[in-house]
Each structure stands twice: as structure tokens, then as C-alpha cells.
Fold each of these.
Amino acid sequence: MKVTARAHTNIALVKYWGKKDQQLIIPQTDSLSLTLDKFYTDTTVEFQPELKHDQLVVDGQVFAPKQMKKVTRVLDRVRELSNQTLYASVNSTNHVPMAAGLASSASAFAALALSASRSAGLTLSGRDLSRLARRGSGSATRSVFGGLVEWHAGHDDQSSYAEPIMENVGFDIEMLAILIDTKQKKISSRGGMQSSVETSPFYPAWREVVAHDMVAMKQAIQNHDIDQIGHLAEENAMRMHALTLSADPDYTYFDGGTIQAMNLIKGLRNQGVNCYYTMDAGPNVKVIYNQRDRERIINALAPSFGVNNLVVAQPGPGAHLL
Ligand code: DP6
């Protein structure tokens, strides 16, 4: 059966940065994110008797079998769950600048989990789908659901899954992505986070930061308090990035444009506009704010980055079939 699914990216407000188990992708800590409407991946999967190996095409580009290990891992799990051995063809289109810290792996593996499981005749619950997506990429665990989502770290395959906190976000939170550099990133999140776990002396403190932030963030969400959500998200992101600067060898995902954006946002804040920044494994900056302040924020950023590089996103839906 040929099945197409769509999944949207998510941006973490409390970041996932480090694994306990690299094979199963069990994270060191819980995390929490917002799924966005603007960036998504469409993936079509078909298991076919005539195939001699799995096939992957992403945005029209054919991948060699050894370039598609993460995809194979998810497909292997689907074969295991559905008790069959057929190979699959996978065709994926990203509506996300790839590998630019806009979490294309999150939407990609959530869309793959849904399309591949359905194509193999499985109807998984949201929780089980999130566990399957997790095999491909950690952040994909959360993209199975829409709105505000929590990933419970757990300790094994069964206990590490995502759960929606608020699927229909009933308040005016918005995220604006500043596209600073959409080229492929130099240090993968996978390699970067592992180096932070192994070499940053601050890693134990990070676990405590996240434990605190998960509680505070959920409270801020229940209060619909966008300022507090933004403040906590910015602080959490900066503490995550402190793990890259304190690793050995040290590294950073920021570039000049990242720092410039941070300064502009702080400047706006000093003028009384409540807006906050967050960054992932790339130089792009995402701004968190109340919808009503959109114009002022765009007007302040456009002269430096160009209005075409500012993308406004709102809470988006979970993975679904097309
Ligand atoms: C900074 O999910 O890309 O975006 O599990 O190794 O595939 P793997 O990593 P990935 O890491 C995401 C890191 C982050 C923070 C987050 O999304 O929570």
C-alpha cells in the first residue's frame, strides 16, 4: 500500500541535548516543544516485493544505501512490528531549509514513522508512533503531535515517548524564524550533543536546569503567559549553548548574524516589546512573542536580515495522512 503523510517541525522551548542510549535514542532529560505550521515534510512510502533494498529520494535527490542508515533503522523497526521482510521506497519532500537548525529531521522522521507504519498495515497509537519516530531522530518524537508537546525521557524503548500538553494552543504565541544561513550545518546535533555529554563539566548542571525548566514551563503554559514562556525558553537555550562552548574541543552553532539578531531582540525588549530568542544546532534564530507585536518585530529585523528571510509561524498540527 502506498501511503503519504505530512509532519511539521517543532522548536524546543526546553531543549533535548544528550542521549543515554544512542541506539534507541533515549535522551538524558525530558524536553518540551511547539510544533509549527510553516515548516513540514511530506513523505510517501511503499513496501514492494520487487525491491532488493530500501530506496530513499529526498527533494528529488537519490540517496545511497549507506547514506540512509537512520531511515533504514526506522524501516527495520516497522518490518519487525509488522512481521514482514519487504523493502520500501521512500520519497520525501521538505518544506524546510534542510539541516539549518530548523529541525528538518523532526518533521522528516515523524512523517516517515506515520507513512511507513500505515503502509505496512499497522495502525499505531500516537504514543507508539512517537516511539517509532524516536528511532530516527530524537526531536521527531515530539513532531508526532501538534501544539505544545512533552517528550518523557524514560529509561527504555517503552518509557521514552511524547505526549501532547496542549494540542490546540488557545493563546497568541507566535514564532518568527530569522533565516541567517540555510546551508548544511558543520557539526551535527548528534555529534555535538554527544560531545557535550562526554566532555562538558557543566553537563550535570544541565540536567538540573531541565528538571526545573520543565516544571516552570508547564506552569507558564497553563497560565498562557507568553512572556514567561519566552523568558524561560531563552534562558534554557542559552544554557544549552553553554554546553557547546564548554565542550572539548569547544564549538558553537552561532555565527555573526546570530549575535546580531540576539542584540536586536534585546534592544526591542529594552523598548518594551516582549520578545525572546531561541537557537538550535545552527545559526538561525527563532523569536518568541505575542502575535500583536509581530509588526514591530518585523520592522526592527527587516533592515538587517531582509523581509524575505523572516518567516512567521504559528502553532501547527500533528502528523497526519494526506
Ligand atoms: C537542538 O533530534 O536532531 O534541536 O536525536 O541525534 O537526531 P538526534 O538529534 P536531533 O537534536 C535536536 C536538538 C535540538 C533541541 C531539540 O530539538 O530539543
Amino acid sequence: MSLPDRALARLDSLSIEVPSWAYGNSGTRFRVFSTPGTPRTVQEKIADAAQVHAFTGLAPSVALHIPWDTTDDYAALARFAGDLGLALGTVNSNTFQDEAYKFGSLASLDAGVRRKAIDHHFECLDVMDATGSRDLKIWLADGTNYPGQSDMRRRQDHLAQSLREIYDRLGAQQRMVLEYKFFEPSFYHMDVPDWGTSYAHVSALGERALVCLDTGHHAPGTNIEFIVAQLLRLGKLGSFDFNSRFYADDDLIVGAADPFQLFRIIVEVVRGGGLDPAGGVALMLDQCHNVEDKIPGQIRSVLNVQEMVARALLIDSDALVAAQEANDVLGANAVFMDAFYTDVRPMLAAYREDRGLPADPMAAFAASGYLGTIADERVGGTQAGWGA
Ligand code: AOS
Ligand code: ZN
Ligand code: ZN
């Protein structure tokens, strides 16, 4: 069996953005384990990301994180990436590591703290001007731990005003994506806890403000594919942070914990036009590799997404629509499950070979010896940073 023609064009245009922080050491609050060959500079992170793209053809851009990826010449960094066949993608801000942000950042009750946080986002926009990046991603740790600790409602007003200032500084080609998270690091309330809150803010701002959906940021049991469908319907899904989780924001390899959930999400992405190049949905990864090797972890991740896209494209849409319209409950479900249960790995191996890529990117990368080379060359690699 080979992939149907209608699937090939979609697969050819599939691109997944990898996060720079996935290549650094990371861990939990208990321990950050080190890995030989860990990048010491942002250039080394980009070089590692280039390996993922070289072996898969799937990951042509890298998301940056400021200040973790601070460098003195971002235009030069973009050229460096370009020489390796990569573009610099989304710029992630960071208002969660400074002492000043102990009680919040863009939503803080303190005007001076809000000013500092807004100015940080202006710096991120300057970086984007130099790198040519399209998207500014904002994730806020803002929130409280105890009822009564702060004024939740006033904080929403402050947040709206802070976001307005940042939005008004966006260049004509730039966008802002606002990520939500239901808990952590705050446990009683987060200032952007859910897609509804993010949607309310970005809708008030304008058409270049959109929602970022991190698949690990929902309460257990949440129907994430419904949120995907709704945001696409509303034209407000800007980007994904893909990862997987068993319990909370585990940031494990996408598709590892619940492949069926990934399938269901991708089905709605396809259904809603989210894979169309003009659709404007950035498929990013937001993962950490605490114990596994990082580059193979990223290769596995982009392959998992590709695999689910291929399976989603195998759905017999005509049969599905016919069964749905006939209220054939089990028939419709069977069409859906047939696609999910199809083993597309041999088809994708052939697809890759047709395009001059290794049939088995994991094995080809392992055989390349790259991990041994960087382990010899790099000593004292850095920590990815907290909060990923
Ligand atoms: C935090 O939990 C988030 O998932 C963010 O996307 C975070 O900003 C990102 O991991 C980079 O810091
Ligand atoms: Zn995220
Ligand atoms: Zn997260």
C-alpha cells in the first residue's frame, strides 16, 4: 500500500518548528542530568537542530527563547542558521525568571513591574526584526496561590493593557500568540488559564493576535481536539506547542503518551485547514529531553507528528461523511479507527526514499556518529532553563 496522491502534497508541505531549548540539558526540580555533547551556545543548538532537519526534511525552523538564546548579533545568527538550511522562527519571551516577577509580570498590580515586562517584549520584537521571525510567543507564569492574594479581575485589566502596548508595536508582518496554561507555577489561579481567556484577549487586540495551544496545558480528560476545531473555526489558532503528558506539563515526546489523542488533534487540524501553508498555524514542539538523547528525541518527535498526519490523511472522508449523515454511529467510528490503526511506517519509509531522505531517520542519525563527535568537541554544555 502506498500513500494516496492527495496525501503527498500535504506531507510535502509539512513543517515542524523545533525549540532551541530542547537541545540543552533539562530536568525537574529534583535534578538536571547532563548529557555529553550538550550545546554551549545558541549556535551549537542551531547546529543540532540542523541535524533533525537533515535527517527528516521536516524541521526547517527553530524557535528561540530570550534571554536563554541571547547573542550580540541576531541578524548574523539568522545568517548562520540560513547557512545550515534553517530559518529562525518564533521568539519566546521570558517573564518568569526575574526576582522582579515574583508576583506577576504583564498582569502585575505594580506598574513598574508591568513596564519592565512590556519593555522585555519590545526587546523580543527587536530580535524578531533582526531575525525575520514572524511570531512572538507569550507564555505568562502570572497567577496566585491563595484566594484573596490578589485582585484577579484587576489583573485582567492590566494584562489587557500590557498586551495592547505590545500588540501596537508589532510590525506589519509580525504576529503575537498568547499561550494558556491551567496551573503551574501558580496553583490557585493563573492569569491566562484557558483558551477562552486567551481568546478573549487576542480577539480584543486584533487579527494578528492569536492563541497558542500547548497540548500539555489542560486538565486531564479535556477534549483538546474540540478546542482545536473551535479555534480553527474562529480563525484564531496561531500555533501549537506539541508535547505529551501523563500527568501535567510533562513536556514528553509528542505522541509518546497518547498516540490516539495526537491522531484526534491532527484530524481536526487537517479538517480545519491548519495544514494549508496559507493557514498560518505554526506546528511547534515544546519539549524537554531529561533522560533521553536530545537530537534523537527531536527526530522521534517530528516523525511522530508526520506519522499521525499521514494516518489522518488516510481517513476515507466520503465514507465518513456518509456514515455521519446516516447517523451510522459505529460505521463512522470504524472509518475513523481504520485510519488510526493503519501502520503507515512502511509507506513513509518509501516516501522518504523517493525524496532522497533516509528511510529510517533514527537509524541513519545513529549511524552518522554525530553524537560521538559533539561529545568529544563540547565540554560543559548549558542547562536549557526553567519553565519549558
Ligand atoms: C510553559 O509551561 C510553557 O509551555 C511555555 O511554552 C514556555 O514559555 C516555553 O516552554 C519556553 O519557556
Ligand atoms: Zn508551551
Ligand atoms: Zn508548558
Amino acid sequence: MKKILKINQKIKSYNKKIFVEGDKSLSIRWVLISSLSEKKSIAHNLLKSEDVVNSINCIKTLGSKVKFNENRCEIIGNGFHIKKKGTIFLDAGNSGTLGRLILGLLINSKNKIKLTGDKSLSKRDFSRVIDPLKKFGAKFNSRKTLPLSMEGLTNPKPINYLEKKGSAQCKTTVMFAALKSRGTTKIKAKKSRDHTELLFKHLKIPIQIKKGMKFDSIKVRGLKKIKPLNYRIPGDISSSAFFLVLTILSDNSQLLVKNVNINSSRIGVIKILKKMGAYIKFKNRKIYKGEKIADIFVKNSKKLKSINCPTKWNSSAIDEFLIIFLVAAKAKGISYFKELGELNQKESPRLIWASKILNLMGVKNIMTKDSIKIYGNPNLCLNKKIVIKNFLKDHRVFMMSTIAALSFGGNWKINDADSIKTSFPKFLKILRDLKS
Ligand code: S3P
């Protein structure tokens, strides 16, 4: 089903408090990890989006029992071994996180696994997880993309693995496979979100972590079973970021986003926006099962300045760059973002899309294969027609375009509103609440 969102005026000033839905990374990890325990795990505030529902469908196919109503989800998993016969067909839909992580979990599967995904996922690189999983002993029919089939092995051997991209998906896939191997897997990983490490620690899975400046060293020892995992999923900072930026760009507005996960490996967006002159404060800080949580307060900023964005923040803001680029469009001076080749490996080639949308908005920018320079204009105000059609239906391209329309004006037609169902189904409802 196609849905077109038409916007032809800026949002009026607001002063509101909102909740965003549960964090996607934590939601998918909770589902997959819970499938490993034969006892009941319970989650509250699990994100009810297509990526998470596809994760649930996959573990159900593998033998887990799941009850999911509005705010509570229960999983009784199938333990460390799948008790099914024959080839198992799994569909990861649009989710790179699900598609990659589940292969790690299935390293010890006796069944042949056939994994498919939608048009966008079928274009994405799977060699990044196929290669390390082959080292554990798995066999694959594909070298790079979906659909693929994998054959696991009863006794995977632990590996030494160097993760150089700063990809939490690659790191987690290997950590999951390590959990099912005999012996200790040693990982040296460029810094990336560390939710899996925190969950492993909380579950008392034998893990050792040495934090370095750019790389972390992680050792995971294999096990035969794990405890159930009860969890209250905090709000998603990646979803919050769209509203933080809308508020920064909207005259006389202010916003409180309640109960958001502010894990240090996820708050690159906050550091970047603050460096650009935004007013953002964390309130009511607490720690929950190793994760940092806070309410985020943000106000409209009259004076935004350009940034030469330090690359050390890239991984911790990787899902937020599209929306950060809108702040750069209004900042005084030329902003420069570099070493961002990974952005073109997402649900759609996002660096290319960012440049396209900025061009449509009349914002001068110079893009290379892994960088973009954005020439900001503090008086940016649009009154032209803009049509956005992202053929890969990238949810974040849709949300970036919506926020651009509401912040800068113009006459916008934004296709594929349905794309938000993958990560943030309540996005448009929250916007309506801000307007009312
Ligand atoms: C994720 C890691 C990131 C991020 C994705 C979710 C995760 O991907 O872009 O949305 O949950 O581990 P990479 O690990 O490929 O950078």
C-alpha cells in the first residue's frame, strides 16, 4: 500500500512532552536472546514495529512460543538447539539487524537455513557476517547477498575476529556464534553500540571486555544454556532524534522526550547537535540493567553553527546523520562530515539520498563517496514544490523529509509513509500531537 504525505506549511511553535517507542536495537536483541532460554522471558515496551515482528516470526519458526499484546511480550524459547526437521525458511523483511544477528545464533543448527529479505535488504552486504561465520565452520551458498542458505555445525570452533567497520551488527553476530561455540572467541572491534555486551553481562554470560580508545577487546566463552531475560525497553534515541531536530529548527518551541536510552555508544547525535549550538539537557538520569536512561529536554536554537564533525562520533550517530544534515542546512558556515561510506550501506544509500534531498531543497552541498560538505543558510526558507520518492522505501529518508518540510516550509509530497512501520510506527501520531 502506498501512502503519500502532503505538507505545505511549517509546524507552529509548541511546548510538549512526548514518549517515543522502545529502542529497536534492544528490542531485536531481547527477542533473539530470549529465544535461547527455555524459561519465560517478559518484556515491557517492546517496539511493535515490522522489524521486531519479523524477529518474533523468525524465532516462532525456530520453535519459540510468543505472546505479544499492546505493552507486554512473553517468550518461551527453544533453548540452544532447534528441535525441527528439514530446511528452515526465515524472512528478515527490511531488517539488517535481524538478518545478520540471526545467522550468528544459528551457527550450531543442524538444519539448512534459507534466509530472505525485502528488496532493500536483498541489496545489502552480507559478506561482512558470512566471512566470520565461515571461520566458525558454517557453509554458505552465497558470498555476499540474500537470498542465502547456510549450514551450521554441531560443534562450532571459537575464532579470533577483527571488526574494522565499527559495526555493532557484525560484532553481535560473532558474539552470538561465540556463545554457541566450545571455548573462547576473541574479538577486537572498532567502537560501536554495546547493547549486546551489556545484556551478556547482565545475564552473567562469561564475557571479558577491555575498552580501548578506538577498539574494544572482547572475549566470549561458549555456554550450553542461559537464564531468561526480563526487560523494560527504554525509548529509542534514533526515533527521538527526529523530534529533537524539529524542535531545534522550530521557532520558540521546546520539548521533553521522556525515558530515552542514552547509552554512551548511541549519543553521538547529542554531542554533534550541542557542538552546533543546540540547547539539550539530560534530566532524571538513571541506570537500568547497565543501560543509561534519561529524559531529554531540547529548545529551539536561534544561532546554529557549522561543524567539522569528528569521525570518532560517526559510529555513535550512524542512524542520525540524515537528520543532523538538516541542522547543517540551517547552520552558519560550511559543515563537513567525513568517513561516512557506511551510510551508503543502510536501508538505502543514505549519503546519496541526503545529497539529493538537500539539492531539491536548494541547499548547496558537495558529496564524495564517503563525505559531504553542506553550505548552511541561517535564513533557509522554502516555497517550492518538492516530491520525494525513495524506491527502497527507507523509513529514515521518509522521516528526514517530513521534518525538513515542517521546519523549512515549501510544498512537499513525500511518498511511502508506510515505511515508518519498520522502526517507528507512531511517528506521524506523535507529530499530530505536537500540532494539536
Ligand atoms: C544496529 C547497528 C547499526 C545501525 C542499525 C542497528 C544494531 O548498524 O545502523 O540501525 O542494532 O546493531 P551497523 O552495525 O551495520 O553499523
Amino acid sequence: MFDNLSDKLDKALHVLKGHGSITEVNVAETLKEVRRALLDADVNFKTAKEFTNTVKEKALGQNVLTTLQPGQLMVKLVKDELTELMGGETAGINLSGTPSVILMSGLQGSGKTTFSGKLANYLKTKKTKKPLLVACDIYRPAAINQLHVVGDQIGVEVYSEPENKNPVQIAQNAIAHAKQNGFNVVIVDTAGRLAIDEAMMTEIANVHKAINPQETLFVVDAMTGQDAVNTAKAFNHRLNFDGVVLTKLDGDTRGGAAISIKSVVDKPIKFIGTGEKMDAIDVFHPARMADRILGMGDVVSLVERAQEQFDEEEARKLQKKIAKNQFGFDDFLNQIQQVKKMGSMKDLVGMIPGAGKALKDVDIDDDAFKGIEAIIHSMTPKERTEPTIINGSRKKRIASGSGTSVQQVNQLLKQFDQMSKMMKMMQGGGGRKMMQAMGR
Ligand code: GDP
């Protein structure tokens, strides 16, 4: 995410970091570079100019040049201003109303249908809501099917009327259906076009007026940069929407839309989409995003994701097993699955301060666990709980069953053995014994 921008800002600020004496000249030079980096990232021209002017003013106001660590203060000023630019505070969504109605708007291909599914799934699992998805695209039968497929995948009911050509009616009928059947959130997915056209705008404005939603979200593909910002302006003009959803941020190396949209339309980004899967949705936090852009990682989100997957009961059971020396390959598999649920490896690495930058050219393979999982799946239940019985012929069988080599099986067994020993030591004498074992 935003690799190019992060790189350029890092280079721009590098001159100041670590410099004992900083002159007005190199502050000005740095800010010029920062502005260039923002323009290269497709940030709106006016926004970029205002940004550097504000940072400059603040730098002068705080007498940056005379402070002990001027470089760091400059980085902080840039970070604070980036946060401000992206909205400052985290903006929530309005879920009042019975049911609360959420209207999705945006161009075709922006990721509206995918996001409708992600949001339904998010509300269902995180906020224990009962959402209903509504297909209001009357032009493309495929779009209705697509929403049904998404609904099936996440176990959320989809309301559609394939024969009805009146989207206002469909939306109203859906809300009535929701009231009768105990749904407390209604997510209305509307028709998009490839480009802004009057008929589409009138149609969605009519739906908007008729159903008076608690929340109108504008969905936009982050990779379209300034186009995204211009489309946002047009939709906002007609709908006065409440918030923006930036999709496909996983493929956005520039970041222009994320940085300029708030300052141009004065509406907060509320959610981001970071992949095609249903769990690739995140609440947008401006400060954390600024950290990520400046290569400072996002430890808070990382910890949050870990906590979401953390099951106290499971953890206790696991601890008991380790204490009794019963930690087996099934538990190992379980752990791998927990980690995988936290998100894609590349995404997780990007949240570790410094790691995203250091590993940006390394191809982080999300299938890295696949070989390990295949090996474990090829073991018998007894082999999983008692790995010591795995002899030469068993190894051969496991390797051929999992499509790996005996060498790979050996490697996994060795790693598992080391890990079990380490866990045992951490349980027992704490870190001291472990250090001794590691020869320190
Ligand atoms: P709609 O026409 O606005 O309903 O757009 P869709 O929901 O059909 O999405 C268009 C394409 O973008 C599909 O292939 C989606 O899988 C893909 N897509 C949607 N959101 C994301 C995202 O956050 N990341 C990535 N990489 N792809 C996405």
C-alpha cells in the first residue's frame, strides 16, 4: 500500500533526520520534495500546496530550527498534517433507526457489490447485527446474481425482485420486508455506470429521497487517483453523502485519493477495502494511515487484529497442553489458521514498523503455509499427537501424500521439535532457561 509515496517521503525527510544542524534552506528544500512526492502520488495540486504551506508555518511557529531534534519534529509535523488532511478523527457510521438503512453509491466496477457484502459480514460478526442485502441494479441481471453469491458466502439474506424495473419500489419493499422479518440493517446496493451520467444520478437521487437512509456511502476505487476525487465531487453534489469507502487500497501504490478526497469533498473516509475476500475490510483511521504512509507501521491495528482472533478459552487449553507436553500438530495447524485469519501476510508485514519498507521488494507469499498444512493433513491422527512415531517409511508416505519431499517433512518435524522444546521452557523456568538453551 502506498509504497511509492512512502519511499519518496522517506527520501525527502531523510535529509533532515539525523542532521544536527538544519538550515532554513534545507527545510524549504525538504518541503519542496514533500510536495513533489504528494503530486507524484496524484494528490490534488491545491491540497499539496496547502499541505506544505501549513507544515512550513507550523515549523516556523515552533522554531523547528532551534529544537534539539529538528528532523524528528519535522517528521511529526508532516505526520500530524497528513492525519488532519485525511480527516483527523476516525469517523463511525450511523446505525440508528429500525432498521438502519445504508445506501451504496458509486460507479460500476468501483467495488460496491463486494463492499456491500463485506459491510454486511462486518456488521454481522463485529456488531452482532442482522443485516439484509438489497439488489437494486435493474439493468444487469448478473449484478443481482453476484450479490446473491456474496450473500450465500457470508450467510446473509439477499432481497431482490428480478422482474421489477423500479429501483425505488424495490428498495421500499426491501425495507418493509426487513421490518417484518427482524432485520435491523438494510444495505442497498445500487446500479452503477462506467462513467457519471445523468440518468444514473437521477435514479440514485430518487432512491435516496424515497428511502431517506441513515447512511449514504460513496464507494470508489482508490487506484483511480484524481478521477476518484472528481467522481466523489459529482456524487456528493447530488447525494450529499455521509462518507467515502476507498476500495482496492491493496493495489494502490500512490495514495492520492486517500490523501485528497477529504479535503476536496469534506466528507470522511469511513472504510477501506484491502482485498477481494469478504474479510478484507477495515475501519479507516487517519492517524494510523499516516503512520503507514510514513513507514512507521501500524502496530495498533496489528494488535487489534491479533486480539480479534484471540480466544481466551482456546489459549487456556493450549497452555495446559503445552504444560503437559501434549502440544501436537493439530494445535500447530490451528495456530497457523489463526494467523491466516488476521489477513494477508503482505498486509500484516506492512503493519510492522520498518518491515514494510525493508521487505518491500521481497515477494511475500500468502501460500507460504500451504506446504506445511499439506504435510500435516497427510499425517494420521496418531502421528499428529505423537510425532516421535514418524519413522522413515512414514515420512515417505507423508511426503508423497502432501506432494512435498522427505527433506521438507524432516524440516517441519525439526522445527516442530524445536518449537515444542522452547514452549516447554517458557512454561517452566521462564525466559532464563530458554536463554541458557540458546547458549547465552
Ligand atoms: P461494482 O460494480 O461496483 O459492484 O464492483 P464489484 O464489487 O463487482 O467489484 C469489481 C471488482 O473489483 C471485482 O473483481 C472485485 O473482486 C474487485 N474488488 C472489490 N473490492 C476490492 C478490493 O478492496 N481489493 C481488490 N484487490 N479488489 C477488489
